Amino acid sequence: MSVVALFDIDGTLLESGGAGARALARAFEAVLGTPLPFDGVRFDGATDPWLVREILGRAGRAPDAGTISAVLARYVELLPAALSASTGYRLLPGVVPLLDDLAAAGAPVGLCTGNVAPGAQAKLAHGGLWGRFPFGGFGSDAEGRDQIVRAALRRAAEALGRPVAPDEALVVGDTPRDVAAARAAGVPSLAVASGRHGVEELREAGATYAVPSLQAPEVRRLLLG
Q: In this predicted model, what pLDDT tens digit does every residue of 183-210 receive, in sequence order?
């Protein structure tokens, strides 16, 4: 039986060419009336709510729930235009053929991403991938990535009409944060060195499996059984 594959988005399935960061910068300026610096903030593997909280805190602004919600709502409104204007948006190598093979085999596929759900939809829809993922866990479910993994497992169970144990799933991501969240939720991880972290770094972070890209031969073996 195929595992339940839970995919991260940024750095794993696609690169947005900085569209997300640009939309977020404009959202801060629209809500607060002034731009906020992103210096030193690590975007890779972060959740959208955590990013907003972190940027507000670094700028000496109160990271209250109302401000976070307002910034994220404006970000979601601005993201489609930022994606359309991006010259660096691309689906990563091997993504479409892999998803085609998983679909042909009837393998269950979902998302496990720090993007809020509407942001995830915008990024994937821009590349024609949104309809590939019938369920998932999102940054709009929780700020902590381990809770997002658990939300993805719950939705997988609802979609499949049966319980899904943590060891029946596989989190596919490109950062040590993906690996740590999967481990905290008891889910094995397939770390892909398609972002800014290499295979050895991902192994050292505790990834169950680590590969250079989704084109690696072992990916299909792990996901299709």
A: 999 999 999 999 899 999 999 999 999 9
Q: Which of 172, 77, 149 is nearest to 119 (CA)?
A: 77
- Tens digits of per-residue pLDDT, 23-42? 999 999 999 999 999 988 98
Cβ proximity of 151 and 137 under 8 Å: yes
The Cα–Cα gap between 68 and 58 comes to 14
Catalytic site residues? 8
Q: Determine the Cα angle at 100 with ends 99 and 102, to 5°.
A: 60
One-letter amino acid for residue 14 of the chain? L
Instruction: Look up the pTM and report it.
Output: 0.96
Give the span between the Cα atoms of 13 and 111, in whole angstroms.
10
